[in-house]
Write a structure and sequence with these properties.
The complex is a heterodimer of chains A (65) and B (320). With 65 residues, chain A is an alpha/beta fold. Chain A has 2 helices and 3 strands, in the order E-H-E-H-E. In chain A, strand 1, helix 1 and strand 2 form a beta-alpha-beta unit. With 320 residues, chain B is an alpha/beta fold. Chain B has a 5-stranded parallel beta sheet, sandwiched between helices. In chain B, strands 4-8 form a two-stranded antiparallel sheet. In chain B, strands 6-7 form a two-stranded antiparallel sheet. Chain B is globular. Classes of the chains: A alpha/beta (65), B alpha/beta (320). The interface between A and B is small, with 7 and 8 residues.
């Protein structure tokens, strides 16, 4: 069985989340490994969020914004 | 009326907390006349079996300093919890793990290897390590077992109050005694210190926080009136609870974070890292890499006192 990483994506509402949304409405496919969490600004991201994601078993964290 | 009974204990800590109690100087006589000291291994000659013989909840106030990292400390913490009405985590080690909790960056096996085998001052040709049981002519000797993890007191037994600090300042010790004596103790779970960050009470001049280079305290002589962080010295004030009386700041030294995180902050180290990242002025990779090198020992700097109580808890142990 191949390794399927769980990646938590913390995405900015105004750019990267909008991009992910646009990918969806344009019917583009992307790997389901990333679970998206929307924040209103990537400046909202606290290092605690990243630690929490790893603590809960994430293999990777992607912060976009 | 019988005097209230006071117990003090010293677990994984340096002993400074016990000295801090004595630092109350002549006030210690007031304390001694107010209470009966029923257990205090460093100062009075009561043994564990004396405590075991007491009725449950017969100690009115117990000041417990030190983290928990051995079976003996765990046993006494459990015992004193059962015997005490009010159990106080006294000092940084009992509250947040303190300096001993930096051992969570390693493991028991690595510690024993380093201390008993590798340390250059050792002469241990038989490579003897401490054993839990040792047979001698007189019978079998037993030693407490060291844990892999250093834990806070509250991770082992329920705790009523927290008095942080390395060591707790005298005015907070007296405040606790006063709150107790006047029956004005806050609701359980409270920390006897400020509810704000150290920066909030710091009287240094704070202008704009823009740092282009970080210094270690011995590398520059800081201006005693200006914010240390603005001068490029890593001061943990933004992520540390106030109430300490700014002992370090007044000595022109940065805050090391011994009061633990302010209320509402889960992870002191992550919060401090966040503060440092937001004030650094550098956009290029080379500058950021240089800054990372300037912060020597980031884990030990940001989690100096709070490792056991942090979200990280410890280095991941290799599964054997």
């Amino acid at each position: 069985m191949s390794f399927e990483p769980k990646i938590v994506g913390i995405l900015c509402n105004w750019c990267s989340y909008a991009g992910a949304d646009l990918a969806g409405t344009s019917r583009k496919k992307y790997a389901p490994n990333m679970r998206v969490v929307r924040v209103m600004c990537s400046g909202r991201v606290d290092p605690t969020f990243v630690l929490k994601a790893f603590q809960k078993g994430a293999d990777g964290v992607l912060v976009c914004g | 009326m019988a005097k209230p009974k006071l117990a003090l204990y010293w677990a994984a800590a340096c002993g400074g907390c016990d000295v801090a109690v004595l630092d109350t100087n002549e006030k210690i006589l007031d304390i001694a006349s107010l209470v009966d000291i029923v257990f205090w291994p460093i100062a009075v000659d009561f043994k564990y079996h004396h405590v075991k013989a007491m009725a449950d909840k017969s100690i009115d106030l117990c000041l417990f300093n030190g983290a928990i990292r051995s079976t003996e400390q765990e046993e006494i913490a459990t015992l004193l919890r059962a015997k005490s009405k009010v159990l106080v985590a006294f000092g940084a080690c009992a509250c947040h793990g303190g300096i001993p909790a930096l051992a969570n960056f390693t493991s028991r096996a690595e510690i024993l290897q380093r201390v008993y085998i590798e340390a250059p001052s050792n002469s241990n040709e038989q490579k003897t390590l401490p054993q839990l049981q040792t047979k001698v002519a007189e019978g079998e000797l037993e030693l407490p077992e060291l844990f892999d993890d250093v834990k806070t007191l509250a991770q082992v037994v329920p705790v009523e109050y927290y008095v942080p600090g390395c060591p707790p300042p005298v005015d907070l010790i007296l405040k606790l005694v006063d709150l107790y004596a006047t029956g004005k103790l806050p609701p359980a779970g409270a920390t006897v210190a400020s509810d704000k960050s150290l920066c909030d009470e710091c009287d240094r001049i704070k202008e704009e926080k823009k740092v282009t280079k970080f210094y270690r305290p011995h590398e520059i002589i800081p201006d005693p009136k200006k914010c240390l962080l603005e001068q490029g010295i890593i001061c943990c004030g933004p992520a540390t609870r106030g109430g300490c009386g700014m002992r370090c700041i007044k000595a022109n030294m940065p805050c090391r974070g011994c009061f633990g995180p302010p209320p509402g902050v889960v992870d002191q180290g992550a919060k401090m890292l966040s503060a440092i990242a937001s004030i650094y002025q550098g956009n290029d990779t080379a500058g950021i890499n240089r800054m990372l090198e300037e912060v020597v020992d980031p884990a030990g700097t940001f989690y100096r006192f709070g490792m056991a109580d942090s979200m990280l808890k410890r280095k991941r142990l290799q599964k054997s």
